[in-house]
Each structure stands twice: as C-alpha cells, then as structure tokens.
Amino acid sequence: MVESDKQKITRNRRYARQVILPQIGSEGQKILGKTSVLIAGAGGLGSISSLYLAAAGVGHIIIADHDHVEESNLNRQLLHSEVSLGIEKTKSAAIRLTELNSSIKITPLQTKMTRQNIDSIAKKVDIFVDATDNYNTRQILNRASLKYNIPFVFGGVQGFDGLVSCFVPGRTPCFECVIPCPKKENNSLGIIGAAAGIAASIQAMETIKLILNIGTGEDRLENRLLRISGLDMKIKSIKLEPDPECTACSDVDP
Amino acid sequence: MEIELNGLKETIPENISIDALIDLFKEGDPDLIVEINCKYIFPKNYKTTTIMENDTIEFINPNLGG
Questions:
Q1: What total of structural domains would you count in chain B?
Q2: Which of chain A's residues have a Cβ under 8 Å away from the Cβ of B64?
Q3: Which DSSP string do the residues of B4-59 spell out, in sequence order?
Q4: Which residues of chain B are within 8 Å of residue A135 when distances are taken between CB atoms?
Q5: Domain count of chain A?
Q6: Terminus of chain A with fewer CB atoms < 10 Å: N or C?
C-alpha cells in the first residue's frame, strides 16, 4: 500500500523525536511500521514492552495471553487498570494500546500458546518478545524461533531481579542452551513491578535494534545475558556461547 | 585461596570444582546458573570446571517470571 502524504506527515510528526535519531530516520520509521511483533504474554513484562513498541510505531502487535485481569496483577501489569478487572487480558491490552496509538494494528490473541498453535502465529510475525511466566511456553517459542528463523527476545523477572537476552537463530545460543529445563516450578513468584519495567524496557529497546539492525551483534544483547540485580542495583553482562550438545539448536542449520 | 562470590570476598580450598563450591556454600537451587569472570558456565561442566584464585563468581537463581 502506498503511503499518502497525510499519513507521511502524521508519521513524521508523531514519531519526530525518534525519526531525528540517525539510527532510525524516516526509513527506519517506515520499517518499524511494516513490522509485526508477537508479545507473548500480557503480564508484567508484556505490559511495558507492548506500550513502548506501540508508542514507537511498530505496525502490528499481536499480544497473546489466556488469563483474565486480577487485582493482584495491578502492582506491575500497567496495561491494565481497576476498570479492567475480570476482563480478558488481551482485550484490556488492545484497548490500552489502541488508546496509545490508533494508527497501528493490535491483534489480541486470547489463547494459551501451544505446540499446536505456535506455527500459525509464527508465520505472521517478524520477532518474538518473551513476556511469559513459565519455562514450557518459552520452550515452545524457542523451538518456533529456531524453526522459522525468528529472533527471540527473552526476558524473565523475579523479586527485584531480571534477566534479558536476544536469541537469534544462527548467530547466538538458543534459549535452551542457556536456561536448562527447571527441576522445580515456581508458581507464584514475588515481584516488584519496577523489576518487570526495567527488564521489559530493555527488551523493547533490543527489539527495535533488532528490527532496524542497529549496531553490531556486540552492541545488541546477542551472545550476552544481562543480569539485573535490583537490590544492590547492579547490572552485569555475562558472555554466552552455544551449547554444541543442545538438543534444541545443535542440529539446526544457521 | 581467595575468590569473590556474589560480591563478597571468600576464602575457599584450592582446586575445587563449581559443584564443590555449590555444596560448600549450601546453595540449594537445583536450577542455579553460574558465571565465572562474566562467562556463563554450562551446568554439565560444573563438575569439571575448577575455580582459580581471584575468580569472580556469581550464583544466579534464574528468573522466569513475567
């Protein structure tokens, strides 16, 4: 579809403060507008990453979750508010994101991501932004990331802490190289909302850098695990390498 | 010998593995991630990786909430 002069003026005005950045520019803004992102989860991480990506003008955001908004979500899940209590999280998310930016497309996907439905979701998106709260769904995303060559921006939070990394097939280890299947499940984790905010903001930043190919792999969070330790406010970058024996990625051609 | 573990100076026996270090400090998380001098160590190598003098080591409990 050819962009009209009116759309171009609106785009340049709305995104003026990022279009003036040499790393983005008018061309980069157009690319953002043509990109589809899956935000896998509308909780603490997905609330913040989706807001920043919508605000930045990512053209299509698919936001997936199967839960409804509960009162105990509100300390960190800033997409939702008291008026959203009881409604589907993705519906609440779509309302808020559309209020923020009505010029982009938001697709709410009120479903649990499974091995059965991930293929049809993956075929529609350019990048996965992890906002899940469990290992199994991350493993499903990781396998689809490898199968369809889709970058996977991992984030995880607990307490005052967070972890973030970009797993890019063919260029980096995969999620399962780094985070082995847990031997114990933590079902109800304590979390301070700002920890999710920090990790998800970094995920949004890295997503934009990946979409626009800003910087080198070293500049991006590739082959590095960022560890955010909120209690002593330290952020550390840990060097990663692929596991040659990884059962998920070791036989996938780059 | 001296190492730095989770930001604290510690004195430990020489030639011990990560596995032994985990036991020594009674770290109970079975899903623990370990990094030495800012490099990730694969869990399967905890038995065979020896701690060196002045190593900086972090035990990381993986954060998988969202």
A1: 1
A2: 133-135, 138, 156, 158, 179, 182, 186
A3: EETTEEEE--TT-BHHHHHHHTT---TT-EEEETTEEE-GGGTTTPBP-TT-EEEE
A4: 64
A5: 1
A6: N
Instruction: Give this complex's ipTM.
Output: 0.93
pLDDT digits (tens, 9 = 90+) for A157-189: 999 999 999 999 999 999 999 998 888 766 677
Q: Which of B30, B40, B66 sits opposite A44 (nearest CB)?
A: B66
Q: Which of B30, B38, B61 sits opposite A183 (nearest CB)?
A: B30
Residue A10 CA to residue A158 CA, distance in Å, equals 40
Q: Do A158 and B7 touch (CB under 8 A)?
A: no
**Residue A193's domain spans which residues?**
16-239
pLDDT of residue B25: 97
Contacts of B43 in chain A (CB under 8 A): 180
Residue A35 falls inside a structural domain: yes
Do the Cβ atoms of B66 and A196 come within 8 Å? yes
Q: Quick check: is A9 in a domain? A: no
Question: Domain range spanning residue B10?
Answer: 1-34
